[in-house]
Amino acid sequence: MNNKLMSPELQPRLLQGNFDRKRSPDAQFTDPLTETAMIVTLEQLRPYDLNPRLIRNPSYDDIKASIRRRGLDTPPPITRRPDQEWYIIANGGNTRLSILNELWRETHDERFWRIHCLFKPWGGTSEQPAPGELRCLIGHLAENDLHGKLSFIERALGINKARELYQQMKACQLSQRELAEHLRNDGYPIHQSHISRMEQALEYLLPCIPEVLYAGMGRPQVEKLLSLRAAALQIWQRHATGDTGSFESLFSSALSPFNDQPEDFFIERVQDELLGLMSQALDIDYNLLLLDVDPSEQKRQAVLGPTPEPPPYIPPDEPEPRPVVRRRKPDEGEVRGGTVIPPPESLLDSSPPREGNEPITDIWPISPLFDSTETLQSVSDRLAWDLAECCGIEDCVIADNSDDGVGYRLSEFNPDHPMFSRPQSHACWALLAALTDIPLTEDLSAALTPALYIQRDAGGFFFGDLFLIKAFRLIRIVRRIRELQQEAHHDADN
């Protein structure tokens, strides 16, 4: 043995103890600055306290059975706030963590106690925690949407919390459009109109029916309830000189009693209760209020406007005779001053005004109560039928309420059709076809000329005033249908 190893100077060093065991490993080393694989135990893990999921995952039992048999195939990513002793779930995985704790208590199997995880650095600092909180919150929102669909109210609360964090970071208030832009840039695209409905639900519905919302009320029902509230508020403001404070109390009184039994919640019952209270408060007949919030009556007013009094046109006792060109035979003419004048080719301008299925007085406004693809497709179908009827080709219009349709489609306009020889019928078919994205042939394109909209030659054919009003309204409706379909496709892709 080497005598140097037994020297008095080396002996105390060889007998010296190991490193101080009283210091925890977490106190010695900082968290990794890049994504790093590590093993943690259940006692070191906590669920994310701002997780938007508040309701038990509907697939909880299936996920638990899978983890019991196979173990944890996809361990959740973890992170840690500055100066905090435990780790938290970075995005998704709170359900899996809860299941692991249950399985450990049931089995004490080591594979449920120690977990291989991917550590992700915290995005913020102790002085400015908002960036880290936002990163986790948006991660949980996206993960829950992919693997366990959130309810409408859970997503609304998550988006609202994200707004608070963004405003804390920016030190300013954010509009809905700005919030949508920030979320999209951070990997969670959502349309501004959806944010608007979520904020209305949090403000007007959540205080009254929390149990119903947490039971899983979906977006279509929420939108119908908000539309009912908007229609009732308009009536209240007309008759109560804008006393919206009393309306909020009345709306809450009508809605709150239905919170106790979510499974028996029906919007029709809420409407009945709300109109009953409004009838008593405003001293207005219940049936009159019902007419104002009834969907069919609202649709009529959205297109035609309020019914004017007195009527805009009162027929005289002895109306002056006027020619009815639509009833002439093709070879007949009109005698004026002993001269036979050939019948004008227009069947549109000389016919008496017809209201048809969709009477029109205003072209552009669309009521929010009926601003949906299905409702507008129905309006589009009736308008197309009215236009086609003016030219005798109504049999070519076929209702079409498919997801990508505009409300109608056209059958082929063949030479054997009785109105095929009429240029106005060709022009009308071409106009309706163009709105359904049917490619027009050269002949049909030539039939649809700008002169149809401005020509006033009595010997020629042109679009009449009522026809043009309905045509422009149809264009407006089809444009809005396409906008709603694009929004729906965008939401589906995300």
UniProtKB/TrEMBL annotation:
Extent of Basic and acidic residues compositional bias: 319-335
Lineage, broadest ranks: Bacteria, Pseudomonadati, Pseudomonadota, Gammaproteobacteria, Enterobacterales
The chain's coiled-coil residues are none
Pro residues composition-biased segments: 307-316
InterPro entries to which the protein is assigned, alphabetical:
ICE_PFGI_1_ParB, ParB/Sulfiredoxin_sf
Which residues does the annotated region (Disordered) include? 1-28, 301-356
Q: What is this protein called?
A: ParB family protein
SUPFAM superfamilies in alphabetical order:
ParB/Sulfiredoxin
- Per its UniProt record, what NCBIfam families does this chain match? ICE_PFGI_1_parB
Lineage, top-rank taxon, reads Bacteria
